[in-house]
Structure formats: structure tokens, C-alpha cells
Amino acid sequence: MAGQQFQYDDSGNTFFYFLTSFVGLIVIPATYYLWPRDQNAEQLRLKSLRKVHGRCLWYRLKLMKSQQSVIPTLKKIALLIGWAVFLFLAYKVSKIDREYQEYNPYEVLELQPGASIAEIKRQYRLLSLKFHPDKGGDEKMFMRISKAHEALTDEESRKNWEMYGNPDGPQATSFGIALPAWIVDQKNSMLVLLVYGLAFMVILPVVVGTWWYRSIRYSGDQILINTTQLFMHFMYKTPNMNMKRLEMVLTAAFEFDPRSNKEAIIRPTDNTEVPQLIRELGNINVKKKEPPFCYPYSLKARVLLLSHLNRMEVSENVEEDQRFVVRKSPALLQEMVNVGCQLTMMANSRGGIQHAPRLASIENCMKLSQMIVQGLQESKSHLLQLPHFEEEHLRYCVSKKYKVRSIQDLVSLKDADRRNMLRFLGEEKYEEVMAVIGSFPHINMDIKLQVLDDEDSNNITAGSIVTVTVTLTRRTMMEFFEKEQEHTCVPEDQTAEEGQGDPSKNKSKVWQSKNKGTKKVPKSKKKKLTKKKPPSQQQQQQPKQDKQKQLNGTVSANDAVTYTKEEEDDVSEKGSDSEDLDANKDSPSEREDESDKQSETENDEIGGDDEEEWEALQQSIQRRERALLETKSKITHPVYSLYFPEEKQEWWWLYIADRKEQTLISMPYHVCTLKETEEVELKFPAPSKPGNYQYSVILKSDSYMGLDMIKPLKLEVHEAKHMPDNHPQWDIPETEEEEEDQEDSDGIEESEDEEEDND
């Protein structure tokens, strides 16, 4: 373009500005994100977990890795080098003189703006004597002084300076490029072109292509798409999949194939060590010729998985490959659960597919995840999840005296009986076992059933969308163990006064009352409690959630009500008294007044219930909006697992199922953020036919064996309301003109009606 000039940096000064900015944009964010400041925090965290998880494999591996790892040190060294380069460049920039600055002849002559011609000439003579080259002065400075004197004394030069900022008149526009001039030098043109082509035509396409090729091979959960297709094929082919078949399908995943995953390794020692493990394991369907179960990688992965479940000792090379297989398995099983859910949804949408997976197949996937994390076979006792427990010790637990078959049974024992039963452990081992049991989770599950976006949220009609709100509260077994001790320490005088009798006789196991259901109240007594018992102050102060549960007709296991014989007699007496009072009302006027009062109170209660339902609906909407905006961390609580090679967090599966028909009612929700309390909404369509249905709300752990929960869910489905054929239609005008025309026509019709009335 005319009047423009492009100048490269010959001295390299402006290039330092560019280079300093570029290095700063890299070093400052990298320091914030990559500086290993959490190293001490991680060591403190591991130290706090040592008492409980000190014997776990993942804990020992992580502790060893944190002590031997040099990666944090290398990160610090690289960041310090970057900061040293950045500070050096900043120092170089600070020493560069400003060459390009605004030209001001008054500043050159050291005068104030607006000085007279006489002052300018006098100052010029003084500075000329000082900087004249013949007098030993600076030649460049003398030239600047002469130019400034000419600009202020010559009329044309002064006019050019005032208009264009330069005594010589308008100059061509120049653009500086912060690159050294040697880059565009003809001698270096081939080298620069070679570097440019290598960077942008070779390296960049290869990096982008490699990333794209790898990304399209994986799903959103970092599972190979080929593996997902493999799972879908076999779950469709085998709807009712037993545990052995499931283990074969799991180990056939392409994550264990060296051709698809570089982490999978084929070792020369596999030809000798794998057959030896096969002989020790026994029958594992080695001769099965169905692909891909007969492939070497699948057979090796199956052998390593089974040896892990049997807690067999293996060599170092095999142990490394075994840890890789075990570490990948929980994520693969979660993908298998997702595949089973997708096939079930397809079956429901298409009116039923013959090969849709059964509920047992999906639950076997969840059970296998527990087995892999704990390193136990399905038939083994759940007590073997605890440290220092061996097979020969189980005979002390399952004896007729104690009958301890689960961890809940072990905790529910009295301390004296527990110590006597575990006398094969020393004092230190016993304290360690109790600390581990105390860290185990105990979940409190509350269920609320309703139909949202409906006038009557408690009335479930055929085909309506039912919302089951499940509130999960996570506590440790140690908290319930301490509560049980407090209950056992109640004074006998206090229990006698309250009519409770001997606490040892009336005390029920905490675990049975919480997890295994509740004592059902007879129907006749339920009627007396709900209808004929007068409202007391305690019932008026009852929380809204309890009222909702009573309206739904379902009582959760944690809200179960048990009554003593005396209380039941009192309730029946109050009910009979109320019946006698109703029978003694002979006056019809009194009956009418009483019925009017009763109808008014019922209307007030209905209005209050509507307000409560509206508030509950608004709260649920707000909770859902907050859940969409918030992203909770999936770090919950570390799982106690003796043989799992990686730190595993406590996660759960929550779903509704029909145990009788062996079908899923709602898809399993993977609860990954249950740290203390979590609220989950499960939605499903109500059955198309009216009637009573019995479902189950199931909570399964993906890490612990024997801690699953099942609660009944009774569903009473009514017939859907039919809309009348001749219901009024509302004509809504689309524009303002139509609205005005409609108002005019309504006014004319009203005037005609008035005239007819007058006639």
C-alpha cells in the first residue's frame, strides 16, 4: 500500500518485548496449575487414613509412589527454569532505551512551550557551545539541537511540526514487527521455510490426527466403543447371564487386547505362568472355542481375574498385569450395566424384546463389581472383607452360640460376646478390626412417592409419571454402634417407670430394624390410628415429610411404628369412646352442626395440604435447578479393600425393580456424590391397569459385599380420569386487533341480552 512501510527489528529490542510476553503467558498459568503444592496435603491425608486403611494394597502402593516419585521435583525444576528465563527477559527489556518517542523541539532545547524567539536563539547558542563537535561535544545531540532550533525559528518548519508532528512535513506510515530482521533475510529464507513447513504442515496435522483417531475410539466414559458393542452383543444374546458367563464376557473386553490398548502387555513368561495358574484354578472353560473367549488375551485376563478373586499368590510380572485387569474392571462393569439399561429401554419402547436382559444379569454385574473390589468369590463369607480374618476363623463366628454370618451381625453383638468370639485376635488386631468396621458405611434411606405436575400429587393414575424421591443419608457403623451402647446403658429405674421393662429383652438389633424391614401394624389398628384417634399436639407438630408418607400409604423402614400392648389398648379405648360419643348424639340439629364444623375443618385441612404440596413442589424444582448448576465432586469416602490396587471411592446404584417379574421399573442411577446426604429422583410410568403393585427400591454398593438395602414400595394405581367431551374451549386471540374485535362483539352481545331482558 502507498505511504506505508514495514520495518523489522534490526536491533532485536522489540523482539524481547514479544518474547517476554509469550514466556509470561506460559509460566504464570503453569505455575498456578502445575506447582505440586498438594504434596504435603496428600501425605497428611494418607497419614490420617493409616489407622483404618494401612493394610490395603492401594494404600501401600500410593504411599510408596508418593515417597519414590520424582515427578513433583521435576515439575518444580521446570517451573523454576521458566521463571528464571522470564525474569532474565524482563531485565533485558527494562534496560532497553526508548528509541521511538514523540518529537518535541522545546524539550530538546530545554525550554518551556511558548518561549520567545530571543529565548530560543539564546538557548541555542548556549547548547551549541556545549555540544558542538569542534568543542568535544556529542555530534548526534548537536544535530538534534540544530533541528529543534530550525523547527522553532523557521516558519515553514514550525508549521509542519504543529500540523504533522515533524519539521520535515508528512512522513510515510511505518509499522514495526517484533521479529528480528534475520528471519526475513534472503540467506535464511530456506531455513525459515523449512521450519514453518515442519511445524504447520507435519507436526500439527499429526498431533491433531492422533488425538482425533484416539478420541473417536472411546465413549464418554473412556471405554472403547468396540467393547461397548461387544457387551451389547452378548447381553442381547444371553439375557439371563450367570456369573461364569459374565466373567468371560468381562475379560473379553478390548481393553485387555494389546492390539487395541498399549497398556496391555504380552510377556514371554505368559506361556509358562498362565498355564500353571490354569491348573491351580481348575475348570475355567479353557477349551471353549467361542470367539473372543478363546483368544489368548481373553484367556489371560480371565485367569488373572479369577486368581484375584481366589486371592492366589502370583509372580511379580503376573501381579503387574493382574493389577491392570482388576483396575479396569469396575469401569467396564459400569458400562455393562449401562448397556443392559439401554436394551431394557429399547424393550419397553418397542413393546418387549425377547432377548432383553433380565434383572438378574444386571444385578450380577453389580455383584461382580463388589467381588472384584473386595477380592472375594460370591460364595465366600462377607466377614473376609475384614483384616486378620481367615477361613479357619469363621467357625468361631457361625457357631450356634453367636450365629454371626454378616458384618451387621458382628456389630450388633454385645462387646463382651464379641471379644469372646474374637479371642483368636490379639488386643491390637481386635482394635484394628473394630476401627475398620466403624468406618464401613451405613445408609439411611427415606422414600417419598408422588406424582409431580398434577393437581393431586398423591393420587397415582394409570399411565401417569411417578416420581420416587429417595433421600440417602450416609453415616458410619461406629455412630450406630455408639447409639446402641447408649440404649443399653439406660437405667433400669427409668425403663420401669416408662413401662419398657427389661431393655435386654425389648432391645432389637439395630441392623435388622434398619435394613431388614419393619414390624407391620395390623390393618385394623392402622385404621384406629388414622381415623378414630383424636389429633394430639404431637401429631399437629409432625413434620411435613411424615404427613406425606402417611398420605402415600407407605411407611419407610426408618419410620416404622411399633406399639406396646398398653398403647394399643389405649388406642382401642379411645376409639371406642369416640364411637360411643357419636352414637349418643340424638339431636339432628347437633348432628348437622357437627357435620358443618367437620366439613369446615376438612376444607381447612385440604387447603393446608394444597399449600404444603405447592411448597414441596417449589422446593423440588429449586433443588433440581441447583443440581443442574452445581457440579459435585465424585470424591466421597475411600473404600476399605485389602486387595484392590487403586483407591476406590464409595459409589452406589439406586433403582426400582419388580422382584417378582424380574424386571427393571426405573433405570439404575449411579450415585457418585454421596458424602453425607444425597437426594435422588427416580421416575417411571405407572402401570396401564389399575390395581395394587408391589415394587422394591434397591440400593447396591459397587464396592462392599453385604451392605445392600431393599425396601418395599407399594403402588396403588387408580383409573385415569376421563375428560368430558363437551368441556368449554377457550378462544385465545393471537393479535391485539382480534382481541379488540372480540371485546366489541362481547359488548354487542351483552347489550342485546339486556334489551331482551327489558322487553
Automatic annotation (TrEMBL):
A GO biological process held by the record: SRP-dependent cotranslational protein targeting to membrane
Compositionally biased intervals (Basic and acidic residues): 572-600
Residue ranges with Basic residues bias: 516-534
Origin: domain of life: Eukaryota
Molecular function, one GO term: protein transmembrane transporter activity
Ranges annotated as spanning the membrane: 15-35, 70-91, 190-213
InterPro entries: C2_domain_sf, DnaJ_domain, Ig_E-set, J_dom_sf, Sec63-dom
Pfam families given in the database record: DnaJ, Sec63
Cellular localization per UniProt: Endoplasmic reticulum membrane
Membrane topology reported for the UniProt record: Multi-pass membrane protein
Keyword Phosphoprotein belongs to the record: yes
Record key words, sorted: Chaperone, Coiled coil, Endoplasmic reticulum, Membrane, Phosphoprotein, Protein transport, Repeat, Transmembrane, Transmembrane helix, Transport
CDD domains reported for this sequence: DnaJ
Record's keyword annotation contains Mitochondrion: no
Compositionally biased region (Acidic residues): 601-612, 733-759
A GO cellular-component term linked to this record: Sec62/Sec63 complex
Biased composition (Polar residues): 551-561
Domain J: 104-165
Region of interest: Disordered: 484-612, 722-759
Gene3D superfamilies for this protein: 5' to 3' exonuclease, C-terminal subdomain, C2 domain, DnaJ domain, Sec63 N-terminal domain-like domain
Assembly mode: The ER translocon complex consists of channel-forming core components SEC61A1, SEC61B and SEC61G and different auxiliary components such as SEC62 and SEC63.
Task of the protein: Mediates cotranslational and post-translational transport of certain precursor polypeptides across endoplasmic reticulum (ER). Proposed to play an auxiliary role in recognition of precursors with short and apolar signal peptides. May cooperate with SEC62 and HSPA5/BiP to facilitate targeting of small presecretory proteins into the SEC61 channel-forming translocon complex, triggering channel opening for polypeptide translocation to the ER lumen. Required for efficient PKD1/Polycystin-1 biogenesis and trafficking to the plasma membrane of the primary cilia.
Name of protein: Translocation protein SEC63 homolog
The species this protein was found in: Erpetoichthys calabaricus (Rope fish)
Gene: SEC63
